[in-house]
Design a protein that fits this description.
Blueprint (H helix, E strand, L loop, with lengths): L1 H17 L4 H13 L11 H27 L5 E8 L6 H13 L3 E6 L5 E8 L14
Antiparallel strand pairs: 1-3, 2-3
Helix pairs in contact: 1-2, 3-4
Length: about 140
């Protein structure tokens, strides 16, 4: 299953880079995607985890369009935030790629790298400002 997804992602990247969806270009891209080495073997991924990660990556595409339209319309003021986002499951190369893809495809977020310890990655996010904290009389929060 992971090999099929890897080939499909490589083919998708080929088609996006070449911007040509003719049959001959599709076949060339498929051949390249299959012939490229797959890299080191890792333990098999549970299908549920792989499908959940793939689904969240695919649902990020409509979210990216919504965020892009919001940016174009010049909505609210946004503030920068640095956040830590934990990995969904075991760190296989495919799952890390899908998670980073999910974060990076949206215009308001970008993955900056993996944090020390390798259990999470840093995310730069533009988001609406947090509501101001109310200070109670006497200086208490």
């Amino acid at each position: 299953m992971a090999r099929l997804i890897t080939v499909a992602l490589r083919l998708l990247i080929w088609l996006l880079l070449s911007a040509d969806i003719t049959l001959i270009n599709f076949l060339i891209g498929l051949l390249v995607a299959v012939l490229l080495p797959m890299g080191r073997r890792s333990r098999p991924l549970p299908p549920q985890q792989l499908l959940a990660s793939l689904f969240s990556s695919l649902t990020a595409i409509p979210q990216a369009y919504v965020e892009a339209i919001q940016l174009l319309l010049g909505g609210k003021a946004l503030e920068e935030r640095l956040e830590s986002q934990r990995f969904m499951g075991p760190r296989s190369a495919l799952l890390v790629f899908l998670e980073v893809f999910r974060v990076t495809i949206t215009p308001l977020t970008i993955a900056l790298g993996i944090e020390p310890g390798g259990r999470a990655f840093r995310v730069h996010r533009l988001a609406p400002p947090l509501p101001p904290r109310q200070v109670l009389p006497g200086g208490e929060l």
